[in-house]
Predict the structure of indole-3-glycerol-phosphate synthase.
Amino acid sequence: MTILDQIIENKQIEVARAKEKVSVEELQSSVYFKKETISLKSALLAQNSTGIISEYKRKSPSKGDINVGAGIAETTTGYAKAGAAGISVLTDTVFFGGFKEDLLIAREHNPSTPLLRKDFMIDEYQIYEAKAWGADVILLIAANLETEEIESLSKKAHELGLEVLLEVHNKEEIDKSPMQNVDIVGVNNRNLKNFAENNVNASIELFDFIPNDKVKISESCISHPDTVKQLRAIGYQGFLMGENFMKTSNPAKALEEFVELIK
Ligand SMILES: O=C(O)c1ccccc1NCC(=O)[C@H](O)[C@H](O)COP(=O)(O)O
């Protein structure tokens, strides 16, 4: 069983429990249901965008504890000030140490920065949660979803006014994915099944296979400014980066310094 299989197995239990506790109607009564979406797509395409989607995560299956002390409000407002095009907030608790409250706090403190709910979406109920908790974008991981699920979940996200980031690892995942309701395609450089990493070859190899009407981003295992420059030269418009900033004592300052180096 891969770590991704374990995460999905646990997520199925969590979602079933969450549905028993909070109804879709209750989620729909959240103030954020009426909130206008702040477009990550537009932020990435804006002139002078850094393209960086900086991530708040305390731990991960591949790295263990990364930063359990950084405050969510302080880190995310610092990210926004440092020039993040968007902010990714992990809401998975068991494997990443995140909470729904992290997203709610990030929303409260960052009213004009696009926020990605970073979680493992398997059910449309989670899309209602994402909207209720103030997200602008959801992540769909092609590796753990069937074609029909990508179609229905992306459609539901658009119905609720959320943007969709579809994550892929190989050409088969691009080919199987219905793209009508996908806004951004992200190539994850980390193999989620065996954690193989340390290069961005997947992003380089897959660029030409991603439909041209999608915003293209590269995800994970990015730590060097030259890598961002190399990926930009190919045509990538966004870079999802977590550990590189979160492993420092001041993630926002680390982003600020990184932004200077990619200008
Ligand atoms: O990071 C992991 O260990 C992991 C394991 C299983 C599923 C997902 C995982 N990571 C999620 C991510 O994709 C990253 O948090 C994100 O892309 C940022 O990556 P990085 O810059 O390498 O922290």
